[in-house]
Amino acid sequence: MQMAQHDATETSARTAQSAAATHATKATPMTTGTTPGVLVARTIKVTVVLQPQDVLAIPVRDGQSHVPITIRSATRTLRAQLNTKGVRRAQTAVRESGLDGVAVVLQAKLAAGDLLEEAGLSAQPKGPRP
After folding, report:
1. This prediction's pTM
2. What is the tens place of the pLDDT at every residue in 94-129?
3. Could you list the residue range(s) of the whole structural domain that residue 51 is in?
């Protein structure tokens, strides 16, 4: 009987050590292994503030599920596909709130080739300043 208890206790201890080692591995940041302090990103999230008048100029055709757009900055040209419904909602918000009364933001994941994946557009009316 004592031998069975000893085996059970030893098995429990090994299981606990294994679980602790697994947990420690998951909690440690991923590194390249060659350069200390260099981390590996799973994704890069992008937030772009757009000019409301530019959003109004996006052409949206009936029957089109996505609208291709290009965003230019001083150093990059990004491409994305926006859901037509989201573009129409943002355009409506800009028309209702006016060009100075709304903030238009695009959020996406940056992919290879300056492509923005899973891009979404939102327009938030600005509240009165206190």
Report:
1. 0.69
2. 999 999 999 999 999 999 999 999 999 999 999 876
3. 44-125
